[in-house]
Amino acid sequence: MVLSGKRILLIISGGIAAYKSLDLIRRLRERGAEVRPLMTEASQRFITPLSVGALSGGHVYTELFSREDEQDIGHIRLARDCDMVLAAPATADLMAKMAHGLANDLASTMLLAADRPVLIAPAMNPKMWSHPATQRNVETLRADGISMIGPMEGKMAESGEKGLGRMAEPLDIVAAVEALLAPGVRPLAGRRAIVTSGPTHEPIDPVRYIANRSSGQQGHAIAQALQALGAEVTLVSGPVTIADPVGVTTLHVETAEQMLQAVTASLPTDIAVMVAAVADWRVATGHDQKIKKLPGGAPPPLVLAENPDILKTVGHHARRPAVVVGFAAETQDIEANGRAKLVRKGADLIVANDVSPSTGIMGGSRNRVKLISADGVEDWPELSKQEVAARLAAWIAAKLPRQG
Ligand code: C5P
Fold it and tell me: For the chain, which residues make up each domain, given as ranges?
């Protein structure tokens, strides 16, 4: 079993997503992991220590100053006597405590005392996630080397609000745990991959820009899936609000020009998957100062210039990767457009999807794709973006010429 003998200290903090932690415990144990659960006081309002204990098959830690727990295993040892610490769900409050080094309950104390890899699965209301305070904490935690999975886009369980904030699904958290602890089956070990993801922002002036609705979820999931199969992955991401994938070198860029530079500087690689929704045009007449709106003045003209095509550049590059994959976001004639793109861009595969507004794919968490290659067309059922990523990584692994 992949996680055999691995000991995971699971911190459950207080949010509605805590109910998913029960399934998470089951999934981790199915893979051979030993799960030692620790619950915050607030989490016990959502699920009970009894159910957590029943599923984990052992003691549930709840208090910092419990004489029994201290006799069983001192709280510093609890933080050390494991292979990793996983916080799922990690609330805004827990992340704030972590970012500021607070240690005023058992969970925050464990996180401060831990000297093992830490993975957190944030879950909160979308407004709380996008609040500058939380985003500052996210940056701090990243800089501290904390790995993060999610949050995902979707409907909130309690309010029905849509946005970023749902906890990643248990199986995706398990995959991130495996990526950290157990490289597992690694058909892409020794291979290098470059992935682009997210939108690009093309400045109009220092405060305004042209952008699109790409969330980066599909590209980031692909980077993670390639990494999970053992590849050394560089992800070049446009501006997104989701976390960097675990174990992936992520370069953050804004414009198409910067993305192209970062991609070509990363060559040679064995694999290139260009998922970013690169803006087709940038503003030719860039302004150094904010364009002023003058009383009675006419709106300023925007002159656009074509952006470099990154996929096409890579597909025809002297150091072209062995497998080049592109995406095609289409609203009509999906197959015909996909085939034409395959040739024009010099790709081995075009993953085509219908992004008509009615599909909810752009910015959503699910995807329905057709794979267009020289071998023909494969129509995949509707899947989560993570599942599309995992299948695509397997397709790429099978397609790569053998090494040596
Ligand atoms: O031509 P179109 O934009 O539909 O092609 C989509 C594919 O090309 C995607 O894989 C996208 O990442 C890539 N692309 C690119 N650079 C551009 C435009 C698209 O890499 N400037």
Answer: 7-180, 192-399
